[in-house]
Amino acid sequence: MSICVNTLKNTGISKCQINIQAIKKAILLPPDAAEFTGETAAEFTTWLKAGIQSENIINRFLVLPGFNGLTDNTDDPVEDTDGYGHKRKIKDSEVSFSCTYDSNICLSKKLRALNNQKMLVIFIDEKDNAFGVQTETGFTGFQCECWFSQSKLPTDGKVQRPVAYIGLLDVTEYQDEIDFISMDWKQSAINGLIDVVLTGTGAALAGSVTITDECSGIDITSTYSTLLAKKEAWKVDGTTPAADPTYASGKFTFALTSGAHTIDLVDPAALLALAVPVMGIESTGSVSVTATAA
Questions:
Q1: Cys staple from 211: which of 105, 221, 231, 250, with CB 3.0 to 4.6 Å?
Q2: In 3D, which of 238, 250, 177 has the Cα closest to residue 212?
């Protein structure tokens, strides 16, 4: 019997044995996302952060919350039986997963906007390894489609979790082109952006702003009391203000000329580029304030 030599590969066990552990996070990339072409874990972290904080949501990497109970719904390989009763595997079945995830009603509504959209997905396990596709020039995510469902109503006092379904569109990517990157960014620290609402009030030659989590309505201004007390983090009337805002009594206050003004945060990419980066928030839009005369 002859063997096609071109198909043979060495099968010794490497000293670096990486197996997929419990999946804790997934990051969705736009279908035309640039590949990671760097070489180090630090470069990969920089690439991920830049994607998550992209100025344009069209190009943004979307972090899916913590996974719980990932279930592999992939069927066994397809079999064929010849006329003599011999069975053999003829192709791999499509790869699909489902899982519950950490969320709330508001977030699930936003995730459902992604239903049936073609995306790329990178899985991150509990050991901080990122799994995706090895390409000729670098590393990217698996082609996929997702479906998100709200949690079912509680039964017998048990709280239900929302469910995510992820179907990979190219089985060859998972079976033959899968690759990994060991990260230097803890998966527990990876999070996507939340929408924040600015509320403003005017005063004598000044305007003040507070920051609220859009989903929960919780005031989170104090969380950023130091990080956002920098003029480069803000836009007043569309440009960088002349001086840093001051933080006191749960609000940021800007020195203004008398009259109407708009105040807004800079975009997420600009927040990431600050001397001390700010991650995880994006303003839903500017707020109007009117500064009175002295």
A1: 221
A2: 250
One domain for residues 281 and 264:
yes
Q: Is residue 207 assigned to a domain?
A: yes
User: Does residue 29 sit in the same domain as residue 72?
Assistant: yes
Count Cβ atoms within 10 A of the Cβ of residue 261 and give its class: 0-12 exposed, 13-18 middle, 19 or more buried. buried
DSSP string, 143-175: EEEEEEEPPPPPBTTBPP--EEEEEES-HHHHH
Domain count, the chain: 2
Residue 57 is part of which domain span?
20-189
Shared-domain flag, residues 116 and 246: no
Domain end residue (candidates: 172, 189, 206): 189
Q: Is residue 6 in some structural domain?
A: no
Q: Cα dist. 54→38, 74, 270 in Å?
A: 18, 33, 9
| 72 plus 88 within the same structural domain | yes
Residue (of 195, 212, 194) closest to 252 by Cα position: 212
Report which DSSP code applies to 267: P
Contacts of 150 (CB under 8 A, 6+ apart): 105, 108, 109, 112, 162
Q: What is the pLDDT along the chain (294 residues), one digit of tens a residue?
A: 445 555 667 666 666 556 677 788 889 999 887 799 999 999 999 999 999 999 999 999 999 877 777 888 888 887 777 777 777 776 788 899 998 887 678 888 889 999 999 999 999 999 999 999 999 999 999 999 999 998 888 777 777 888 899 999 999 999 999 999 999 999 999 999 999 999 999 999 999 999 999 998 999 999 999 999 999 999 999 999 999 999 999 999 999 999 999 999 999 999 999 999 999 999 999 999 999 998
**CA separation for the pair 70, 101 (Å, rounded):** 9
